[in-house]
User: Which sequence fits this backbone?
């Protein structure tokens, strides 16, 4: 199938469209990162037995998204973008209310999984809305603008969560999520028309689903980057889930946590920006392999530092080390996804859902395993980085033996 060109004339001006799509895609990051300052507080309120239960508030969110992406990927191609987005936001709101009414950890986690399932709708369908209206360089330009806004959310969300905790309670972090969901859904419904006309919608086919799944798991240029992405993101998710415990629990930084988190998130954003400047010149295969080698070197050095300081290096050393390491991680996220998607051709929509789901499941398993060993020091985090970054490098080396050739020819 030839590459899709622009089919629908944009109904909104570019600034409004970018703002709306950025808000839509940022709801995922907001739902995760604004929770971080409140994890221990929520855990205590819900009767959590240990810190690992509180970490599940973050890690299980990605499990819900893994299922949600598989549902909403085909759904938005079958029923249209508007219906998928509104349904997803509605489910997200229901999950938010469940969290607000929770009085035990089990109910809280159920609410978080429902939230995550729902937020997959706007995440998947908003990308489709952009693709429907823009193609080639125009789409790249729009996505660049959206990513510039998106990068700010992980930096600011913990500060917002801390601010809500300071003036109210953890309950009202969920109130904030509810207000954002209602505002976003109303804005989208009023201003953005459907971009996938009925004539172009495709009925869901189990046969196509299984064909796409079989292609993904049997073709090295697809499954390799997918598995590597799961390993890399799993190592990072272990840190993300435990970040509040690490900085507020181990280091006792208090409200400075949100600023430390923002600093480390900036490293990933900086890497994403630099990658956009160099990837067309150097190629995503070369950038990915250099970044993976850099990640492994970082993990070796970081684990050595942890050993030297008996498990807990000075705060400034930990922050500096993670800043450098997360720069390499930031180079990997977009490139590994692009590499996995490159051979998919006309199964791109369903393939994206399967790849996103599979890599998320792997990441959750990795993160929960690593975090289960986290007690009083950083050894589990450092070891998790080393093991899974190294595994990702090995997988990429084995699956992309001829990176100089287009991925289609490798399949």
Assistant:
């Amino acid at each position: 199938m030839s590459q899709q060109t622009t089919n629908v004339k944009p109904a909104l001006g570019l600034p409004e469209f970018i703002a709306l799509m950025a808000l839509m895609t940022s709801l995922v990051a907001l739902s995760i990162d604004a929770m971080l300052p409140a994890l221990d507080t929520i855990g205590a309120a819900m009767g959590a037995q240990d810190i690992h239960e509180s970490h599940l508030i973050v890690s299980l969110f990605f499990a819900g998204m893994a299922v949600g992406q598989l549902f909403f990927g085909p759904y938005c191609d079958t029923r249209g973008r508007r219906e998928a987005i509104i349904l997803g936001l509605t489910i997200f709101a229901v999950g938010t209310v469940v969290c607000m009414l929770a009085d035990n950890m089990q109910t809280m986690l159920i609410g978080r999984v429902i939230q995550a399932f729902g937020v997959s709708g706007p995440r998947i369908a908003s990308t489709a809305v952009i693709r429907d209206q823009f193609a080639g360089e125009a789409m790249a330009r729009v996505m660049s603008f959206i990513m510039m806004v998106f990068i700010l959310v992980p930096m600011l969300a913990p500060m917002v969560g801390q601010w809500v905790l300071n003036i109210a309670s953890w309950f009202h972090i969920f109130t904030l999520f509810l207000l954002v969901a209602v505002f976003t859904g109303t804005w989208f419904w009023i201003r953005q028309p459907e971009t996938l006309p009925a004539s172009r919608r495709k009925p869901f086919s189990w046969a196509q689903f299984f064909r796409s799944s079989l292609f993904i798991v049997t073709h090295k240029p697809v499954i390799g980057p997918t598995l590597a992405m799961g390993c890399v993101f799993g190592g990072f998710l272990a840190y993300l889930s435990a970040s509040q415990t690490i900085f507020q629990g181990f280091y006792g930084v208090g409200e400075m946590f949100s600023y430390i988190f923002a600093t480390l998130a900036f490293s990933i954003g900086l890497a994403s920006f630099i990658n956009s400047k160099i990837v067309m010149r150097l190629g995503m295969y070369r950038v990915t392999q250099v970044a993976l080698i850099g990640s492994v070197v970082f993990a070796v050095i970081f684990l050595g530092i942890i050993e030297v300081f008996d498990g807990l290096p000075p705060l400034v050393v930990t922050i500096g080390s993670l800043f450098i390491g997360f720069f390499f991680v930031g180079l990997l996220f977009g490139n590994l996804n692009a590499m996995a998607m490159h051979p998919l051709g006309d199964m791109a929509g369903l393939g994206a859902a399967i790849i996103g789901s599979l890599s998320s499941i792997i990441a959750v398993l990795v993160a929960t395993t690593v975090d289960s060993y986290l007690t009083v020091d950083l050894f589990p985090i450092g070891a998790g980085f080393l093991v899974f970054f190294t595994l990702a490098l090995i997988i990429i080396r084995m699956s992309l033996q001829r990176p100089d050739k287009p991925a289609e020819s490798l399949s």
About this structure: Residues 1-6, 402-411 have pLDDT under 50 and may be disordered. The CA atoms of residues 51 and 375 lie 8 Å apart.
